[in-house]
Write a structure and sequence with these properties.
By secondary structure, the protein is of the alpha+beta class. Helices cover about 60% and strands about 20% of the residues.
């Protein structure tokens, strides 16, 4: 009887300990799951954690594009009219326009400023027209670093200018006021110079430059020089001859000191010869 009671108590203790172990395991598993949910970790497919994402601001590139195209056409005026229509379509403009019309060639030398976003489309439209492209060159320059440097310098100079303005309000003597105003003037000149450079770079970035040459070779034609009538040429020859003779006389008069020297030399030479003849006699 005592033995059976003992076995029953032992059985109850074992069941109780198992239930507590299950509870403790459940709590531990829950805490681990909670920890995993509270601390999210980004993993690759292989389970390796990824590096933290860097949310730095992406700097917009500043690119300057320039181009040169030499286009041979059959009709220069028609080609120029087509370029005019393309210029209007893409919001471009001429910065210079030059027409050359010689005996052997007719050509337009054009410098165009084209919005950067339309630069490639503009060139494609030019190439699709009637004519042969003899030369093409496109250059791209990255001025992002230069642009950022100028902006940083401009910001710093404006900060210094504001500090000097604050010091000017606190100045007590005339000497201090003059020194601070001189520093402010110098910084303002630098600010204007830097702002102008930034504006110039912005213009080069916003509007690309294209130098376009449109030309057509002409067939050679002999054009003799026009001459005056024979009677008119005789008159011109007589007139030129008379004026030449007058100029010759004036040149002789102009060197009158030389003639005096020549006369004196001849006089002394003759006098010397006479003395020699007298001595011989």
């Amino acid at each position: 009887m005592k033995k059976s009671v003992f076995l029953l108590l032992l059985f109850v203790i074992m069941i109780t300990s198992c239930q507590q172990a299950d509870k403790s395991n459940g709590i531990l598993a829950f805490s681990e799951m909670a920890d995993e949910e509270m601390i999210p970790v980004t993993r690759q497919q292989g389970g390796t954690p990824l590096m933290p994402i860097d949310n730095k601001k992406v700097v917009k590139k500043k690119i300057i594009k320039d181009g040169r195209i030499d286009l041979k056409v059959g009709n220069v005026e028609a080609a120029k009219a087509r370029v005019d229509s393309i210029v209007k379509e893409y919001g471009a403009y001429y910065s210079s326009e030059k027409l050359n019309n010689t005996d052997w060639e007719t050509s337009y030398n054009l410098t165009l400023r084209i919005p950067f976003v339309h630069f490639e489309s503009f060139i494609t439209a030019i190439e699709q027209g009637k004519g042969e492209v003899l030369y093409k060159e496109i250059d791209a320059r990255d001025v992002t670093e230069q642009f950022i440097d100028l902006e940083t310098r401009l910001q710093n100079k404006r900060t210094y200018a504001q500090k000097y303005m604050d010091l000017l309000k606190k100045a007590k003597s005339v000497k201090e006021i003059l020194e601070i105003e001189e520093n402010i003037r110098h910084i303002e000149e630098e600010i204007e110079s830097t702002s102008g450079r930034l504006k110039y770079l912005n213009d080069l970035v916003d509007y690309s430059t294209l130098k376009l040459n449109i030309h057509k070779k002409k067939d050679f034609k002999y054009n003799p020089d026009k001459r005056d009538k024979f009677s008119e040429r005789i008159k011109q020859s007589l007139s030129k001859g008379w004026f030449g003779f007058v100029d010759f006389l004036l040149d002789l008069v102009m060197i009158w000191p030389f003639w005096i020297i020549v006369v004196l030399i001849i006089y002394f030479f003759k006098k010397l010869r006479r003395k020699r003849k007298q001595n011989k006699e």
